[in-house]
Fold:
Amino acid sequence: MSAVETVPGTSTPSRKRSKWDEDEGEDEQLTYVPQPKKRAKPKSIRPAPSASENVDSSRSASPSGSQSTGSTSRQKPTHSVYVPPRTHHPPIQASRSVYSYERLNQIEEGSYGVVYRARDKQTGDIVALKKLKLEEEKNGFPITALREIYALMSCRHENVVGIREVVVGDTLTQVFVVMDFIEHDLKTLLGTMPAPFLQSEIKTLMLQLLSAVRHCHQNWILHRDLKTSNLLMNNRGTIKVADFGLARRYGDPIGVGGLTQLVVTLWYRPPEILLGATTYSTAVDLWSIGCIFAELLLKEPLFQAQGELEMLSMIFKLLGPPTKNSWPDYSSLPLGKTISLPSPQPHQFRTKFPYLTSAGLDLLMSLLTYDPEMRITAEEALEHPYFTESPVPKHPDLFGSFPSAAAGEKRRKPFNSPTAPRGANLNFLNDSNLSP
Ligand SMILES: Nc1ncnc2c1ncn2[C@@H]1O[C@H](COP(=O)(O)OP(=O)(O)O)[C@@H](O)[C@H]1O
Ligand SMILES: [Mg+2]
Structure:
């Protein structure tokens, strides 16, 4: 009956907030001890083991009671031979409550959700809780939220942020992903650190990023939103890829409309998506990695465009416009014939990156390559000579540590990059806005 109240700029209507995350007063949030009535029956809520335990238990699970009963008296199996036995199904367990965590501070309120730092009341571990965006959902649990959880769980890796569990708030529309807490994100760090990363450090960060992305691709996951604010870094020189909110499986048959073009934050978006491709693949992530590599070198984002057209023209300027040689399929892309290309000109990588070695420049150009078929893969990039030439990658233990803005210090926003294209009201490139 009551009007739906929404807080401008937040993704979640305020009435959806649970008691756990509703109070913004610093003092209150630390002392508030909720007594959730609904969670009074301890038997119905079993602490969920960590997902790694889940995996193990699903593999080695002993037969359940229902399977063993009657095994002596019956000859025929109780289920179809085409259906795997019950023990092969993943264990289904009730999620724990968000009240298992003590809220410490809000790390980030992005356009799509909120991330909190919190303490596990049982173990004392400091964790990060990301509230998933579950808006006025009429068709059950949203596929995007499922994809985020699925992708995080299937891409476990040293350089991917660790998912611990999924917990629920007061209602089933309040779902939080619990992750390891990581001190920094690279975007904030690049804006606040006193000196840029050294070449030896950039190599280590790039190797970690590439090995995480190779792992995701090997597990059939496209990230589709790689950018510095989605790369977390701890105080021990280790990068963790985060924010799988736009991730999805690839390799499955694609629906009639193809894959969505509403992916990858503008500044990191590859030319094939800008030109309307609906059958892109792993190469999209490698383009974004090229932009990140450039950003680490420049200490600011490479392409700071306002819209898709400006983005394309910035790309054309740095790479030189695409040719039949550099991108044979260019003209078959949906917008390939609509856009008038500038007159041929050489690339400007050397002018833009005067201090990079030729091996470094070669890696950068192999990542920022027009044709997705010719773009370097994560696997190949890891073997690139740039990583073996001097200076060699620095050991993560030798990285300096920085004060963590996410752990409570006032953070400074260095620059405002566009958000990932998850909204519905984005301006698409179309014939009408392409005319001069
Ligand atoms: N596990 C974490 N530890 C510490 N900070 C995190 C963690 N996950 C996210 N953050 C912070 O929250 C921000 C937003 O999280 P993200 O998953 O990227 O959500 P969104 O979908 O809103 O972009 C990140 O840029 C980072 O600063
Ligand atoms: Mg993000």
The chain is about 25% helix and 10% strand. The longest helix spans residues 199-218.
